[in-house]
Amino acid sequence: MRTIKYDPTIIHTFARQLYHRAFLVVAGYTIAAAALTAAVVFIGGTLLAQDVERGPGIGDALLFGVAGGLVGFLIGRQRAFWFKLQAQTALCQAQIEANTRNLAYVLGTPVSPPMRPAVDAEAVTVRAESA
């Protein structure tokens, strides 16, 4: 059986992917809610107002689309929170392992030498939050 060695870069890659997924969830919910709301207002209002001279115009659809996009953004942000929490949990576990390995090395316990993190955890968080 092949031995699998610990590799912190995998955890950091996983965290980066989770942050990217969180961004896509927020963007997807925002765009989908805006488009759906605008379409429902424009098409539904046009069908309901066939006998009235003025149905909802493009301006009305855009206004409601922006409001729907805001609601979609809030829902998407809430859903994306779980991806970010998962990423932070993984990064925390990787940092605990690195701290434990460093302490054991300093104390002279026979372990492999300390590993430098492949990616700075704060840099991953900052870049993902700014996106």
Fold topology:
Elements: H1 8-48, H2 58-107, H3 121-130
Q: Please report the total strand number as a whole number.
A: 0
What structural class do you assign from the helix and strand content?
mainly alpha
**Average pLDDT metric:** 82
Number of domains in the coordinates? 1
N-to-C span = 42 Å
Radius of gyration: 24 Å
By DSSP (H or I, 4+ residues per run), the number of helices equals 3
The helix-strand sequence is HHH
**Proportion of beta-strand residues:** under 5%
Shape: rod-shaped
Helix content: over 70%
Low-confidence stretches are: none
How would you summarize what this structure contains?
This protein is mainly α. The chain has helices at residues 8-48, 58-107, 121-130. The chain is rod-shaped.
List keywords for this structure.
single chain; mainly alpha; 131 residues; rod-shaped
Tell me about this structure.
The protein has 131 residues and is an all-alpha fold. The protein has one domain (13-130). It is 77% helix and 0% strand. It contains three helices and no strands. It has helices at residues 8-48, 58-107, 121-130. Helix 1 packs antiparallel against helix 2 (58-107) and helix 1 runs parallel beside helix 3. The longest helix has 50 residues, at 58-107. It is rod-shaped. 21% of the residues are buried. The mean pLDDT is 82.
